Amino acid sequence: MAEKGISQAVISRLPRYYRYLKELKDSGKERISSQELSRIMKVTASQIRQDFNNFGGFGQQGYGYNTTYLYDEIGKILGLDHQHNMVLVGAGNLGQALVKYLKFKKSGFNFVCAFDINPQLFNQTVGGVPIRPISQLRSYVDENDVDIVVLTIPKSEAREIAHSLTDTKIKAIWNFAHIDLELPPHIQVENVHLQDSLMRLSYNIHKNEN
Amino acid sequence: MAEKGISQAVISRLPRYYRYLKELKDSGKERISSQELSRIMKVTASQIRQDFNNFGGFGQQGYGYNTTYLYDEIGKILGLDHQHNMVLVGAGNLGQALVKYLKFKKSGFNFVCAFDINPQLFNQTVGGVPIRPISQLRSYVDENDVDIVVLTIPKSEAREIAHSLTDTKIKAIWNFAHIDLELPPHIQVENVHLQDSLMRLSYNIHKNEN
Fold first, then answer.
1. Which residues lie closer than 8 Å to A147 by C-beta, 6 or more apart?
2. pTM for this structure?
3. For residue B17, what are the domain limits?
């Protein structure tokens, strides 16, 4: 389903469309025009039509979009019809919270194993997921289907761990370490920089001072 | 220090500059040219100069930038010379992880109280921060200096809680609920949409399939 050469700006907007369409679909709304969607989402109808035209348009203008169809199609474009196996590297507070959070969400993103350096965590589980010594990470990744590695470790170790996995079959790293990772193009990187987010918030709080 | 009318795109880049400058400063590097910074950060030197010119330029071209000065100045622009009092709304796994994570980071963002609906959590603490019934949130916010409300609750409740606080003195909401909040302009909103992030990752994994 996925198309090539779509800008990351468009891609970044797809999850938001997906979220709003889920709400519309769940509330029983069967069809929606780009004007109506525009009003709810606070983007122009022209932007919506342009975004959707990247993927063939999803249906007739005057008649509006079928919300369930549009939801399903955007889900497929986002690859959400696939299951993704994930391993957690760093089973501290944030890592453990992510395992439990995604389990709760019943998404297609499944943690299959967690790794840590703390021996007190070995042979324990988090949300049903076993925690193993980080020394076993490489062999685990070599011997199992792992799509996504989730890094919730300090930046001092994140770079080394990420680089040690570049010649494996992993497809992506979901990086929570406070660092930019430079990896070969066959490994996708998506960053969640919580501190950057807080700093933007702080800027916006103080921008009108003085 | 903060300037008005700077685009959010520039603001979004400031935390990254701040992060790199910290590494440079900590590694003993005293001065850096825009060319060198450009090479490390993988952005053009022209972009760096344009970004910095929004704030007066931060020093002479040929001579390079003083890393400590630049780090401090960007910190001030980001409002990081202020202390921020935060309350957590939703002391589940993710919320508790955030409290412990930011405590560990020793940043100027301090959780002063947490709130939850679960009676089993009342009178307990997380990372030294007391957990109270959510029914006390409004009176707490009215009686104490609270700058930022951190929402780690389901989307069904996030909107109502956020709207119930719009006439208080809070300055911002750091929103982890899977929803967009529409609030009056005096309240800044910064979203961390973990599921959107995972969806972008999923798209990039599958974009070259078919």
1. A84, A85, A86, A170, A171, A172, B205
2. 0.91
3. 8-77
